[in-house]
Amino acid sequence: MEEKVMQNCDEIPPKIKQPSGFLEKDFLPKEMGWDEWFCQATQFKNILYHSPNGFAIVSLEGKFISSNPALSQILGYSENELVGMSFDSITYPDDLEDDIRSRDQFLKSPASTFKRKKRYIHKDGHHLWVQIDVSLIRNKKGSPSYFAVQFQDITKHHELEKQLIHSQRMESIGSLAGGVAHDFNNILTVVLGYTTLLEKNATYPEKILQYSEIIKKTAERGSSLIKQLLTLARKVESDLKPSIVNDLLSEAVHIAASTFPKSIRVISDLPQDPILVQADHTQIHQVFLNLFLNAKDAMPNGGLLSIRLRMEDGEFISPERTQKTAVIEIIDSGTGIDRKTIRKIFDPFFTTKEPGKGTGLGLSIVYGILENHKGKIKVESELGSGTKFSLYFPALE
User: Fold this and answer.
1) Is residue 225 part of a domain?
2) The organism sits in which domain of life (predicted)?
């Protein structure tokens, strides 16, 4: 029998005839010659081998089957060390539960791809942020076979993003400084006034008790405001956990009502039943605060700021499926936004404010935080007719 001579794969390979669809179909070279198929397979292997991004084949149970050198460089483990290793053994413990939940939901859904940011533990012990893009590969019967995963080290990007968010948060708090100073001046006036009354009524126990109670409640109001501002100012790692969005929104509304000019009326319509979402408290406060401050700036002569929260079933977040969603509407009666500006408002560094009055990062950071929470944001506005921002968060069952 004549021995088959393999084609020289160093030459320019033949035109690709949709090899991925072909290979997914039945994994056998029936529709092209063996030489051609072999060289195309070699070409794809070389592309993955020399890719700057990590790549791995992972079993449905979460164990590495094979990987490329770039992944070894990212995680610190050799290709041989990674084979057979389970992803949960090198996943940052705080991210593991969400990782397993995402994998299980992905396997049950009709989707073929998903992406998420997560932390891995490097071989030397430090943790790093990685963007993973996961594709579910199925056999010719349509049953899941394995995951093809691409890894990108985004640690530096994540750190810069944190710094930007913190910087913008401090800018927002600076915008509230005038209102805080005014509110604290009122608090101190009450405390000093009733302290004087205490001195004048030192022989009347019932009045002492009455005045002391007023001073206590006033001081508690000041303490509550300071705690909320400190929460906003904290520079902490993103920490998504089940949270009652009613409470988060109520706290932000209280800050706005306490610090905005009296010419701006702040009203809210929040349901009694708690609505649970997966959220980072500080980041969500930042979203609300940014949008409230934008509304304040749009009403220089005063107006109405309305905040509404409701639970709905719909395709707000993904047109592919209906799900329970927390819907938050933030509506102002301000100057409004023209259509040309609306198309740009989420772009980084875009601002309509005067030089020195804003960085243009506020709404781009809001957009990024919503993405991080798997949510969405929509804006509706017309010049002279106010603006409505609608926020959509996937609700926890």
Assistant:
1) no
2) Bacteria
| pLDDT at position 11 over 90 | no
Q: How far lies 178's CA from each of 34, 189, 219, 300, in Å? A: 75, 17, 19, 15
Tell me: do 41 and 60 sit in the same domain: no
The answer to whether residue 228 sits within a structural domain is: no
Over residues 201-253, the pLDDT tens digits come to 777 777 788 778 778 877 776 776 666 555 555 544 557 789 999 999 998 88
Task: Give the domain-ending residue among 121, 153, 185.
Answer: 153
In percent, how much of the chain has pLDDT > 70? 72
The label of the residue with tokens 């979460």 reads 62
Mean pLDDT, to the nearest integer, of 165-189?
62
- Domains in the chain, number: 3
Report the alpha-carbon distance of residue 356 to residue 6 in Å, rounded: 68
Alpha-helical (H) ranges within 50-114 are 69-75, 79-82, 93-108
- Tokens representing residue 239 in the block: 């920490």
How confident is the model at residue 218, as a pLDDT? 76
pLDDT band for position 263 (50/70/90)? very high
Q: Is residue 316 located within the same domain as residue 384? A: yes
The pTM of the full predicted model, rounded to 2 decimals, is 0.49
Query: Looking at the structure, do residues 74 and 58 belong to the same domain, yes or no?
Result: yes
Rg of the Cα atoms in the chain? 28
H/E stretch holding 257 reads: helix 245-259
Q: Are 114 and 14 within one domain?
A: no
For 332-382, the pLDDT digits (tens) are: 999 888 888 877 777 655 565 554 455 455 677 788 788 878 888 999 988
Specify the residue for token string 């049950």.
108
Distance CA 45, CA 167 (A): 44
Q: What is the dihedral of CA 220, 223, 225, 229, to 10 degrees?
A: -160
Residue 111 counted as domain residue: yes
At 329, which CATH number? 3.30.565.10
What span, in angstroms and rounded, lies between the C-alpha atoms of 97 and 119? 12
Helix (H, G, I), strand (E, B) or coil at 277: strand
Task: Domain of residue 33: give its range.
Answer: 1-50
* 210 occurs within a structural domain: no
